[in-house]
Amino acid sequence: MKDRWTTVLLVLTAGALLGGGAAYLLGAVGVAHALWIAGTAVALVPAVWWVVEAVREGRLGVDAIAVLALGGSLAVGEYFAGAVIGVMLASGRALEDYALRRARRDLTALYERAPRTARRYRGGPGGPFDGGVETVPVDAVRRGDALLVPAGEIVPVDGVIREGTALLDESALTGESVPVERGAGESVRSGVVNAGRPFDLVATGTAEESTYAGVVRLARETAAGSAPVVRLADRYAAIFLPATLLLAGAAWLWSGEAVRAVAVLVVATPCPLLLAAPAAIAAGLSRAARHGVIAKGGGALETLGHARTLVLDKTGTLTTGHPQVVEVVPAPGHDPDEVLALAAAVDQVSSHVLAHAIVRAAAERGLALGRPYGVHEEAGLGTEGMVGEHAVRVGKALGTRPGWERAQRSRAALDGAMTVFVAVDGDTAGVILLRDTVRPDAPRTLRRLRRAGIERVVMLTGDRADVAESVATVLNIDRVLAERPPAEKVEAVREEAARAVTVMVGDGINDAPALTAAQVGVAMGARGAAASSQAADIVLMGDRIDHLADAMDVARRSRRIAVQSAAAGMALSVAAMIVAAAGLLPPAAGALVQEAIDVAVILNALRALRPGRGTGTPIDEPTERMLRAFEEEHRELRPPLETLREVADRLGGDPPEVVLPRLRRVHRFLTEELLPHERDEERRLYPAVGRLLGGSEVTATMSRAHAEIERLVARLGRHLALAEETGLRPDRIDDLRACLYGLHAVLNLHFTQEEEAYFSLARHDRFVS
């Protein structure tokens, strides 16, 4: 409705101006004046209404200048000037509506595509997935329902994949254009599209409780459709409005000509201030939505643009939020793959979060899992069942190897890891170490945020101080506040907010109070609790913190363009006002000058709709595909790296006839799989990364690591050759062990550096703001 009236206003005022102009050229001066008067009056009515609305809200903005200019033009007989001002107001509003429509487009698209129906299995004797499929309203789906998601359809509710692998397009929620794969037991969020074959889903919530419903609520809460930010004009009105009136009055008194006062008011008509800033901020909301960032109003986005302090929760924000298997340590006489496969087989039927991590690790290593039976789970102790002919228990240690088990607990404590012991047929067979790892995109994101203006980074967590400090060291965080309950988190955020504009980022229920204490609260909405999402000003829909850097880039650019547009418009208007006060710019010419100023600054504000450079690194598609391919190779190569440490641990303890075959397997892996990967990186990947990041110097240290890896592998080869000739002599064991430990350390560090410095480029930096 509003858009239609804006169009009508523009058509009427423009028609009156052009019609009057045609009549004037034909010599019908009276008709021309009548048409221009009509155009001025048509514009005056809504302008008066805008002023009345502002007064009702307790403010008197610079809209009043437009009313005085229109009324003054009629009073002194400058009908053409009044008609031009009328077109100027109408065209300015039309440009604002265009910008807001563009801003609403991405937000409106979110809830316009919300699923309306779901395909539910009727169930039968064979279980919930037995029987036919019926189409039901999405509101009829309940927790635990068995659903079918056909190819190309939107996932209707949050759920868990029953079996197999699903290929999902998550771009509507995260902005990530590349489909992702989710395996059996993994969670799927409503609103994503099935980009592969049909799959079965077990609903974990109703439509109202699901992710997409939250997105819709967030989209409707945004202010993109109304005033996206407190208009910059109103902030300056306290100075601009009285200054304009004083200058107009002084020109009138000095010259004795009322027409000069009208000329001053005409060129002071503040369309740049009224419309350019909101258009820029509204465009910023649109850009943010494309990155999977929902801002609850332009005010939040604007404040984010000049934040100086960043406070971050640790778990789920700086770390992945779920444990991952970092190592499998077999007991003497057992193999790590055997230990992991047996544990994962039993854990397939467990709902424990650690069980999901173990099953996922087995799948990543390509291990075949046996079918368990007789499985039962005892809270606090673990899960046990039969796999083939073996009785397998996964959970707490049995105590059958007390010295070995104690050593593994000490090792885990040093690494800040959790332990899951695996027993086979009543004897401890190994231990699985799990840890909540740092997000691969976190280091690059924090560097980007510092480049964007963040001066201080604080970690605020309820976790142990030693665990928090280890994460903070990796990420170069300025201050660590650990072991803080929710109440103390709020106080800490308030303390930081008192010093500078502060952004708080969190994802859990206990983060919700702290989010409200900051000037801008940001929730990790992909897996975060509803409480934190509702308390936040900005919600990151993707499960990646680099969305925050994207939002910061968008916010800074939008705010910069808004201020630039408003300031330029004011400066040009003030210059024109001085010229008009001197009697050198009559009202009619002044109206045309002001129209040109308005169009220029509003079009400048609309630049915020286009992508900008930001702090990200633009990346072309071939390089992105290459980075993703090498990242996939890393995932395949990482598990065998642990064999280096395991073999080193056994040196001197196991007999040579046991150790030598293991050394041969390690050396074969290094020479046939790992070194070709490293050489391929040197030949193809590093030149491409160098072009992206500004030269070969950025990859020089990585190349040096490649050289060290080559040297250590060659040294290991010489040790193996000597062992084949003369046996594994005791005087060589220490050096051989040092060689294996050195390779293990160098390779793990090198892999992590590449993943954080290079592979993270393909995760999101190609989406520039």
From TrEMBL:
Protein's cellular compartments: Cell membrane
P-type ATPase A domain: residues covered: 114-219
Stretches assigned to the Hemerythrin-like domain: 627-761
Molecular function terms, GO-annotated: ATP binding; ATP hydrolysis activity; ATPase-coupled monoatomic cation transmembrane transporter activity; cadmium ion transmembrane transporter activity; metal ion binding
GO cellular component, one term: plasma membrane
Highest rank taxon of the organism: Bacteria
Transmembrane domains' residue ranges: 6-27, 34-52, 64-95, 236-255, 261-285
Amino-acid biosynthesis recorded as keyword: no
Membrane disposition: Multi-pass membrane protein
Alphabetical UniProt keywords: ATP-binding, Cell membrane, Membrane, Metal-binding, Nucleotide-binding, Translocase, Transmembrane, Transmembrane helix
Entry-linked InterPro entries: ATPase_P-typ_cyto_dom_N (IPR023299), ATPase_P-typ_P_site (IPR018303), ATPase_P-typ_TM_dom_sf (IPR023298), ATPase_P-typ_transduc_dom_A_sf (IPR008250), ATPase_P-type_domA (IPR059000), Cation_Transport_ATPase_IB (IPR051014), HAD-like_sf (IPR036412), HAD_sf (IPR023214)
UniProt cross-references to Pfam families, sorted A to Z: E1-E2_ATPase, Hemerythrin, Hydrolase
Family membership: Belongs to the cation transport ATPase (P-type) (TC 3.A.3) family. Type IB subfamily.
Name of the protein in its database record: P-type E1-E2 ATPase/heavy metal translocating P-type ATPase
Gene source species: Thermopolyspora flexuosa
